[in-house]
Write a structure and sequence with these properties.
The chain has a five-stranded parallel β-sheet with strand order 3-2-1-4-5. It has about 130 residues and is α/β, with parallel strands linked by helices. Helix 1 runs parallel beside helix 3 and helix 5 packs across helix 6. The chain is globular and about 45 Å long. It contains seven helices and five strands, in the order βααβααβααβαβ. The chain has a single domain, classed as 5'-nuclease (Rossmann fold), CATH 3.40.50.
Length: about 130
């Protein structure tokens, strides 16, 4: 499955044509897209218009949604974060670290537009869709 990060969804809903949003637009019917609960929250909280919010919510909830958190994942996320710190790398957002760890632990591929994931990919076994 392909987990799509909020960085891609936000660009998608803002109509920003990037390699990631164009891929999402073109592959959405052919690719198994997975949505995470934290990603759902990050994306939907940014809508100002009620109608845009409701339309985005309807589209996003058409995909399978998984909880990205839990005790085991929180512990592994902390371990991954600490490991990266030993390499001199500090990931800016805890949610990004949780998303990456979820993908690693569940062997899901990640589609993103966020530089933190590039660093995580270098040092951990994060599978990223390269376009």
């Amino acid at each position: 499955m392909l987990l799509v990060d909020s960085s891609v969804w936000i660009d998608f809903f803002n109509g920003k044509p990037t390699p990631q949003t164009l891929y999402l637009r073109d592959e959405v019917e052919r690719q198994e897209i997975l949505l995470g609960d934290l990603i759902l929250c990050e994306v939907l909280q940014g809508f100002r218009s009620e109608s845009d919010f409701l339309n985005a919510r309807r589209l996003l909830l058409s995909f399978p949604c998984q909880n990205l958190t839990g005790v085991a994942l929180a512990l592994q996320t902390a371990q991954n974060y600490r490991y990266l710190r030993t390499k001199g790398i500090t990931v800016r957002k805890t949610i990004d670290m949780m998303i990456a760890t979820f993908c690693i632990e569940n062997q899901h591929e990640l589609l993103h537009a966020d530089r933190d994931f590039e660093v995580i990919e270098q040092y951990l076994f994060l599978s990223v869709r390269h376009l």
